[in-house]
Amino acid sequence: MATAIASMFNRQWKRTRLLRPFIACSIAILIVLMNPAIARSIPLGQLPSLTTPSGTQPLPNGVERRGTLESTEVRLDGKELFRIASPAVLNRSEPGSQVPVEVRATQIERNLEQLVTGNGLSDKEVLNPNTFQVLSETVNGLPVLSVKDATLSEAKVLLTVTDTDAQYASISKDLLATRWKEILERELRQALELRQPEALQQQVSTVIKVLVATLLLTLVLGTAWAFFSRRRQQLEQHQVAESAMIHAHELHIPELAVEPSDTNQGLQLFQGLRHHFSLQRRLQMVQFLQWFLFWAIALIWVVGVAYSLNAFPQTRQFAKKVVTIPIVILITWFVTGLTNRLTDLLVDQFIQNREQEQSLTEANLQRIATIANVVKGLKMVVVYMVAILWVLQWLNLVPGSVLTLGALLALAVSFAAQSLVKDLVNGFLILLEDQFRIGDNIRVADISGMVENLNLRVTQIRSDEGNLITLPNSLIAKVENRSRTWARTDFRIEVAYNTDVDRALAVVRETVDRMAQDPAWQSVILDTHELFGVEQISHTGIVIRILIKTAPLKQWNTARELRRRLKIDFDRNHIQIGIPQQVVMENGFSEPSTVERSQAVE
């Protein structure tokens, strides 16, 4: 039994190790889609076909609306310089004379990029980082910022500071123009200097150093990963050997034995089980370290590539837009997995402390395996759901409206979700009331077997034929637990009709008492005096019935051993089992004779 519990715990942990993130992601996304309130606060993605209740379209990425104003950032080489503003455009498909703020920002960025890269300019019109100037001139009452240099044939206009910009910044136009002028001079000079040959050589040298350091760290961490891989194989082999040893002890413990066995074998079994669970925790620690090293190598390469791309101004914008999001997602996934595994270790440590406080019995093992499995599953869902919601919020994926989508999905899923809610509620009640545990032998309707897996939604039962039966918890209305506290053998045996009934009762009584006093069965047989006597008399014989109270799950082994012993004692005392009686009539007189009918034995 203990081996079955330990092996089931191992199989369940290994089977769900890779599926946990995907299951958690699916559940989290389903929860978000089904809940309009969550969906409104944590948007899921761009849905341009949907309109908001006010009739406006969704804002483009990076655009913020404040009252009647919309603002967005102006970037150079992926770095934000400042924010510009324009009147809100409610219908971007038909803006009319209005210029959306993102269109204005794109034009300003193109002007800056043209000056920095020289695209669209002649070879002579190249800005000198030491001589160019950013000028502010008033045209039609609005400050206009432009760039002037000896290499340029004429000043290049960058942007116009509008009344909307000043209103958004809450300062005057002239003061805002002066502030933007200083920012543009500083950032343009830096961008030009980074594109000089000397700066390019330094950037290449830095990238080479970063890549070499990345390779060295990968080599060191890869060596450590290979070491833990070999250690993991050793522990797995040791675990298999421990399971075999525990199984051998179980077979030697007096369940089917006739001769008395060593009384220390039970203690040895429990010590072996404790060592087995300790070995399992060490194996989980090694697997965690392997996982940590793998993610460390992945993160090192992601950070190294991102740093290398960020070193060059030409690829800095690409690094910001393309690399940042994967990095954040990978880091979030790593931190989430780290949190999930660390909490697994905390749960295991708590269980270990509980084991030290109380004796390690089979009931404790069952309870530990069941609760640990459910707690880890719930914790996994919560951790990954929080991570997914945080990533969605960080990405700022704002749809036009998820209220309609959420309502439709909630309506479509509500009928199917009813059974799911029933499963979860009933599973919670099963755990709360401790109706059964992993390792218990139960019967539900016409299904019986040992509980191999139990969570809030389903219960999996391994039948006597070896079939794995999965039952939704909502279907478990009445359950028979045949392995809790104690069990009972309803033993019946039929002897021949002409047998001396008192003598037969005495033989059965003596056999049962002798078996109950056997050291091999003293801890198994709890009581033999609840019921004993003649249950039935018929033409087939006399039925003798006895109720034997046994330890949990020992009722079947007890009945098998008692049949074996009764066969020996019946043969010794010349007691025959019951057989059908038939009367044969000869010449009008009846003469009893015994005819043995052939019966199929299954």
Note the main attributes of this structure.
13 helices, 18% strand, 602 residues, membrane, alpha+beta, disordered N terminus, 16 strands, single chain, Alpha-Beta Plaits, five-stranded antiparallel β-sheet
Major sheet: arrangement of strands: 10-9-8-7-11
Task: Tell me the strand percentage band.
Answer: 15-25%
User: How many strands?
Assistant: 16
Please estimate the helix content: 40-55%
Assign the structural class, choosing from mainly alpha, mainly beta, alpha/beta, alpha+beta, or little secondary structure.
alpha+beta
Helices and strands, in N-to-C order?
HHHEEEHEEEHHHHHHHEEEEEEHEEHEE
Mean pLDDT: 76
Uncertain spans: 1-6, 8-55, 250-263, 398-403, 593-602
The coarse silhouette is elongated
Note the gap between the termini: 27 Å
Biggest β-sheet description: 5 strands, antiparallel
Rg calculated over all Cα atoms: 40 Å
How many separate helices?
13
Quick synopsis:
It is found in: Cell membrane. The protein has 602 residues and is of the alpha+beta class. 55% of the residues lie in helices and 18% in strands.
